[in-house]
Each structure stands twice: as structure tokens, then as C-alpha cells.
# Entry
Amino acid sequence: MNFKHKYMFLLPGLLVLLGILIFPIGFTVRLSLSSWDSFYPGLDFIGIENYIRLFTDDLRFWEAFGRLSMLSLTTVFLQYVIGFSLALMVWKDIVFQRFFRVLFLIPMMTTPVIMTVIWRTVFHESLGPVNDFFNLFGMNPLWLSSEILAKFTVILVEVWQWTPFMFLLLLAGLLSLPKEPYLAASIDGAGPIRTFVYVTFPLMAPISIGAIIIRLIEASKIMDTVYVLTSGGPGTSTETSSFYIFIKGLREFQFGYSAALSLTYLIIMIISFTIIAKILVKLMVRGN
Amino acid sequence: MKNSIRVGVLVGSTALLGSLAHADQWSDQFPHIKNTGDIAGECSYDSMSKKDYSGQKLTINTHAVPVMGEPTALHAEQFSALTGAEVNVIHTPAGDLYSKAMVPFQAGQAPYDIVFGFSNFIRDWKQYLQPVPAKYVNMAQMQDITQSHIDVNSWDGEMIQFPIDGDRHYLKYRRDVIDNPEYQAKYKAETGNELRIPQTWKEYAEMAAFFNGWDWDNDGELEYGSAEVMKKDDLMFAAFFSRSVAYSKNPRVKGGFFFDLETMEPLINGPGFVEALTDWVEATKYVPPGGINFGLGDEINSFGGGQTLFSFSWDDAFVKAMEDDSPIKNKVGAAPLPGATRVWNRDSGAWEQEFNQAPYIVWGWTAAVAKKSKNHDMAFDYLCFFANDANHQADIGIGRFGVNPFKKSDFVPEIYVERQGWDPEIAKQYADTLMEMEEGSTNRVFPLRVPGVFQFNSAVATGTSKALAGQLSPQEALDEVAAEWTKIVKRIGADTVREAYAIGVALEDAE
# Structure
């Protein structure tokens, strides 16, 4: 085949790639070097002024980033532990196995924003059913308006919504495990705990790392839950990076600055996930 | 002046009341206006039925249902039936109304013929909007609108937005408690003070704290002191300004409430604002559990559902409380926002120890026609029809619609007594309170309407919510807001912000 023809076949894919991936990123880079806002719409050039502002004069972004790290690491850890436990539960033959497998997936199939509205109603401190129950014991927890409990509520809603995703991946992993190592462990007289620690967990490590990284990427974009549940409050106690970027971009209409925030955030995320993946491999994969 | 307004109001209201019970062919077809029938005018049902917009399409971006979204859709359906136009209504959450219109505006596109939003968007939106043509500005329907709402919808004398709603913050209270002799005696015995409509924010706080956390209406549920919009980014900044005006709007000091017009230095961290925020932090102790996370909807439901003694913000909570199915219908009262026993004078740098009160003519719903729309005539006709007298009279009686009085003829108590079954005394108090704010006061504050208004308001929301959550002291929080405002002014340009702000200050200082 002619050399040029090969490139002709590649061209459609290349154009799509340029259109949907390269152009938006390139435009965001250009936008981040402009002062585009509600009053000055346009791609003027202000150099790295937005980045200087971010690194020298925007503590709120970095606080939000710290909060995001805490929320996403906690939620993904809990999702992994609960998801793995549920997957182990329905992995073996149990009564109503099919029913439980579907039941555990339901939260993931619901629309996050709608479910968060429902959770908000459930946790409403003076009108919600949760506090109706606690009132019986003379307690009135402030689920959405105490700095600490609001974080807990966000974590709880996120864990409820996305544990099924972890469950699904881990169950698929468990179902694909080879039988031989289990036979060997059984012949060696290993009990359920030893079998889990020395066989199941190590064999599941690659898929666990994949699932954790996928969930971490998703959790790091946490936005709708915070938006509906607390609007980042009380104060700024549940404000995350993506919610902050949303405020700067679409509430305050500081497009140029929010583009700089987004790019910085993207770079930090790429570096962070690379490091986290390496750490997970070191911790979870036997022999490393 | 006042007398001529009253005469005008009387004439207008007589005409309106005269139309009562005049069911006609239009009310048979459109039951929404069954109480009044069609009311003659340039944009009445009858007038619109003579227009033919068949084959033409109108696209409207409005708020989500029900507040403003429901009347938009209802009047779109009626307009379509009358004129043959195809009307496509798109519903958008309040927080996204600005950006959903602004993105296509800035990109030079016109996906919407009409955009609904808040009247304080006016400075950022005005270059993309078609000014209201003279034939609408001069029509009788428009002459009935109060001057303050003409001002709110105009920019430097030119009407840019079409008045469809009137908004102001005022105090709502439970009459069955405040006027109850038993509670008056109990309150006097325990506090040494009179139980009355609170004249100051300190009185408001004392009464709210007294009536917090016990079942004072014997319905088996706990009641609380006050319902307020405290949720971050959910219009809370407007609630803060309402609490600030009494301490900071000194009638003897001209030249700006939010900024010193001369220097464009923010005044937001001055002692008056700090005092207001200190009061507000205190208020977290007498709101219902979770009240710090109440948005406007929560506030409406809380007070409107009989959960609190006080509330202050837009009309909706009051109207909801007075709806037929409300457990507290005819048990609530309306009054001006509380005042203060001292007011800050920034010229002398000292407190003046005298009573001060100032209405806050807060921004509200409005709608406008996109300059790039190809259907200007049809779009203005739709808005004019939306706000015609028959529709308006029907709309203001439905709390969830979010349409509130802004016409002089709205401030006539008999309307509410006849059509909505309000107690005459309450109706009079309501009408008088609103009218006094509209036309009576000479110490009013208008909303901030400058370029980048969202940046300024967002900074206020962030700072005050930090204080409410206990993350910062009131002074620290407002210092942070002032520092942020200074940066915003610097980014946009002091002269640019000043030029826009001067228009609002002129309205305040002219009084």
C-alpha cells in the first residue's frame, strides 16, 4: 500500500481526536491566558497573570483542594471496603444471590442529582425523617449545617451512590479468578481468612488498583452532591475544587481565571494519580 | 406628591375593583382570570386575540417551575392560543439563569428571544438586550407601575427590562403571638420589655430568642424564632444587606452604601455592616434546626408552614402563609424591616445614636428581549401580555408563582380581601407596608448593579457564610469581603464600576 494512503485512512480518526480532545484543551490553555469575564468577553492576552493570582492570592482554591483530597480518599476507601465485602458476599452461592446482586447495583443506576435532593430532604434537620428518629432520643444532629457532620453527610451520600460501581468491578474480578489457587489453599488446609489474605486479595490486586483509580478520578470531580446538599457550606467547609471552579467560571463568569484553575487542577490530578497508582502497586501487589 | 399618588391609586383600584365579578368570554376560555375577567388594555386578552403570529416561533428561557417558571409557561400557552404563535419555554435553575443567557450573548448568538433573570443582572446584560420600545413604556399598563420598579428595570433613564414582578424585603410576623395578651404579659414579666412588632433588629433578636424552641401555638410541634435565607450562595447576600441597611444607610450621608463613590473603597467592612453580621451570627441560635442551611424555598416553607415567629425576605413566605390551605392564614402580619437605635456615619467616623430605618428595594424577577432576536414585536407583546392587568391580578394571588405587587393598583387592601379572603386588617397592613416602602421612604437602598455583580455578591456570600459557620469573626469575615471587593474593582477598573454604581447612588441620593 502506498505510504500516503495509510495516512489517509488515519485522517478521519485524527480529525475527530483534534476536534474533541486537542481543540478543547488548546482553547482552555488560550482562555487561561486571557481575562475573559462577564464584562470583558474576548481572548485578550494577559500572559500568566491568572496563574500568578492562583499561586499567590487564592488560598480558597488550595483549601478546597485539601478538602477534596480528604473527601475523595475517604469515600473511595470506604467504597472499596464495602464494595469488596458485598462482592465477596454474593460471590459464593447464597440464597437470593441474583436478587442481592441487582439490589446492590440500584444506587448507581439512579440519577445523582435527584438522589441528592432526596438525601437532602431525608437529612433536613427540622423537617427530615432522620431527625424525627433522633428526636425520639432527645438528639438533633445538624447533618447539613455543622462543619463536621456536613462533611460526613457528603461522604455518606457519595459512598451510597458509588459503592455499587466498586462492587460491580470487584465482583467481575472475583468471578474471573482461577480455581487452582483455591484448590491448592484448600489442600494446604488454609481457612477462609488465610485464603482471603494470601489468595483472593493478592489475585484481586490488579483489578482493585484499577477500580480504586477509576473511582478516585471520578471522586475528585465531586460536584453535584456538594452543589445540591450544602452549596459548599456551612461556610466553606464542604467546598471542593470542582465546585470552586464552577463558582468562579459559571457563577462569577470569570472564564479566563477558571480556565487557569482547571488546567492547574488537571496537572495536579495527573501527577497525584500517577503517584497514588505507584503507591498502590507497591502496597497491594505481592512481590513488589 | 403623596396625595396625587393616593388619588391615582384610588382611581386605578376603583377601575380594577369595578371589573370584579365581570366574568366574560375570556375568563370562560382561560379560567386563570376567572376573578376579574379580561381587563381592557393594550395587551389584554382581547387585544392579543387580534394579533396573528401564526407560523412564528418564540423561545423563552425562564426559571424552573413553579416560581416564575409556572406563570411563564401558563401565559405562553395562553399567548399561543390567542395569537397562533408557537412558544417554546425552557426552564433553568435560578443559579444558571445568568450564565445560560450570558454564554450565547457573549458568543453573539440568540437562542432565546426572551430571557428571564434578576433585575440586578442589568449592567452585565444591557448591551445584549433590546430596550423596551416607547409604545410599551408609554402605555397605560406601564403608567400604573411604581417609580421604584420603573427605576429597577431601567438603566440611566432607559427601560431595558420589562417589569413583570415587584420585590422588596420586609418583615413577616405571627400576629397570633405578637398581639396575644397572654404572651405579651409573659414576655413583659420575663424580659421587662413590650411584646410588639419589632422596631429594631435587637428587639427582633430578643423576641425570636424568647419564642424559640417551644410549642407556642399548641399544635404539638416545636416552633422557632426566625426563618432566614442563610444557605451559602442561595441569595443569602440579599438577606445580609437587609439586615445591614438600618445600621449603615445613614440618610445624612450621601455618596454610596456599598462603596464610597469618590474613592470606590468598599464600605462593606464598616462598623454598620459588622454590627449587622454580628446580629446575624447571633440569629443562628434562634433559627430552626439546620436553619443555617435554609435557602429561599426552606424559608418560605418554614414561615409559611407556621414553624417560626418571624421571617424577612421576599413576599413569597407571606403569600404562602395567606393561601387558603395554610394553617396560619390570617394569623400573620407584614411590617417594614426592623431598624436600629444607632446608625453609622462614615463621614464623621462615629455612631449616631438615633433610630434609623431603611427599606431595601431588593432586586427581583424581570425579563427582557434579546437584541439579536428576530422576533422583537412578538417578544414584547408576550411580556406585555404576561404582565397585563388580568394576568397580574391572578398571578399575585398564587404564592408559588413568585409574582408580587409592583403596580400602584396592587396596593389596595380590598383586592386581597375580595379575591383572596384576607382579613381586612391584615390586607391593609400589607398594602400600607409595601406602599410605604415603594413611595414613602426617603432613605432607601437599591441593589448593587455594577459590572461583575456576581463576583461582588459571591464574595459577600462566602464571607458572611464563614462568619455564620463560626470560621471567622464578623469583622474578619467582612475584612475578607472588602479585600476581595477591592481586587474585583481593580480587575474591572474603578472608573467602570464607579460609572455604573453612580446610577444607583443617584436614585438613593435624590430622595
In short: The mean pLDDT of chain A is 92. The first helix of chain A runs from residue 3 to 32. Chain A has one domain: 31-284.
